[in-house]
Amino acid sequence: VDPSAQGDYSCWDSRGRLLHAVQLRLGHPPGLLNISCQVPSYMHVRCSWVDTVKTFLPSEYTTSLRGKDSKPCIVDAVRKHCDILHPAIWQRLHVLSVTETNGLGSKTSTLYFKLRELLKPDPPESVSVGQIVGFSDRLMVSWNIPSSWPQSDAFQLVFHIRYRPLGSRFWSEVSEGVRSRADGLRFRQRRRDHVSMQEVASVVKMKSVPI
């Protein structure tokens, strides 16, 4: 059928009365979905999917999460993702099935994943760098933990800091991960390598790591 045939069709009698109306929509049955999951904290999992077949038809999505003590995955059909709250983070394996259904059929796609391997905290927030008064060879770096990471003594983060002079290709790293939200950073400064505090701040990198 030619795509231009899509539209509204109706039948009328000789007196102009509507007998029947139908809407013709052309499309395809669902295909497999590409599913991926992100785990920004031990309290939240978000799984999203991308169509491999453009169906041109409205679809509904249902999910099923299998595993011991599994939680439901709450679907947002418009944004094509679902959220798992308070997942069984220590469970060895999870299996997520997503079924897409439209007027021409349905198709189920499955993803096997391990939450511990996917756990990746968001980066620190509000990172700032300033000079420590009275110490020309030190900087003070401060930050906030990611807002997506619930504060708990049982699940703490360590932070890794790298820095380099502006214009240099070589990074230095603080030898050990730090847990506090502020850290005194010592660096060797030469007059010919002098940069402003604003410039130094632009070349400090941090990342969060769960322990």
Automatic annotation (TrEMBL):
<comment type="similarity">
    <text>Belongs to the type I cytokine receptor family. Type 3 subfamily.</text>
</comment>
<dbReference type="InterPro" id="IPR053073">
    <property type="entry name" value="IL11/IL27_subunit_beta"/>
</dbReference>
<dbReference type="InterPro" id="IPR003530">
    <property type="entry name" value="Hematopoietin_rcpt_L_F3_CS"/>
</dbReference>
<dbReference type="GO" id="GO:0004896">
    <property type="term" value="F:cytokine receptor activity"/>
</dbReference>
<keyword id="KW-0325">Glycoprotein</keyword>
<dbReference type="InterPro" id="IPR036116">
    <property type="entry name" value="FN3_sf"/>
</dbReference>
<keyword id="KW-0732">Signal</keyword>
<dbReference type="GO" id="GO:0016020">
    <property type="term" value="C:membrane"/>
</dbReference>
<keyword id="KW-0677">Repeat</keyword>
<dbReference type="InterPro" id="IPR013783">
    <property type="entry name" value="Ig-like_fold"/>
</dbReference>
<protein>
    <submittedName>
        <fullName>(spotted green pufferfish) hypothetical protein</fullName>
    </submittedName>
</protein>
